Amino acid sequence: VRTVGDGDEARDAAARAARLPTMAWQVVREGLKHGPVLVQVPRRGYAPRLACERCRTPARCRACAGPLESQDAGELACAWCGRPEPDWHCSECGGARLRAQIVGARRTAEELGRAFPAVPVRTSGRDHVLATVPGAPALVVSTPGAEPVAEGGGYAAALLLDGWALLGRPDLRAGEEALRRWLGAAALVRGQAEGGTVAVIAEPTLRPVQALVRWDPVGHAVRELAERAELGFPPVSRMASVAGRAEDIAELLK
């Protein structure tokens, strides 16, 4: 398992900031010489999160304030209520141009297809989950949990993109969930003796990333449990969340 290290950064100054650093392209190119390559993308769709190009304000629906996303035909629509937004303008600066805050699996497949025009690109996600793919060279772009099994011994390589999107979720279990998703994808790759390679694009110093690189989920779980026990967090304690009107919650707490 590889990640962006100091050596990669020395050769490529933008290695840690780039979505697809030079190391990632090398893993894909080398993997395609020997079989299919799995590309895991945390978000489905084309551009599931958009923002104003000028001021970076998130683009939101005027009806329900949900996030706007780009559809297949390039049109904008709300991800929550589905309302189309044909004439969007930024509520803060009045700008009319958008940029992608997050790149989804469909756009990733499109970009990789342009970069490798002679290679078949297959996608697997919520709307269409593939069970298996042939063992011939191909790019398989999948969201977490929808990764198909590669026939003929597994994938030649796997590229785990946008690690920040999994690790940055506002959830106590974000780190362990990210590690679980990564391990699930990495387990579909051929062993090291057969030349299998896994590359994760995430901050290399973070604990879940280090656990993946060392292939040490047990050690990660032990350290995570000890830390939560010290803080009194689940699973050593139980927590409950109550939602409702302020007066009802106040009455409950009496």
UniProtKB/TrEMBL annotation:
Superkingdom: Bacteria
Keywords: ATP-binding, DNA-binding, Nucleotide-binding
Biological processes annotated in GO: DNA recombination; DNA replication initiation; double-strand break repair
Molecular function GO terms recorded: 3'-5' DNA helicase activity; ATP binding; DNA binding
Name the UniProt record assigns to this protein: Primosome assembly protein PriA
Organism: Streptomyces inhibens
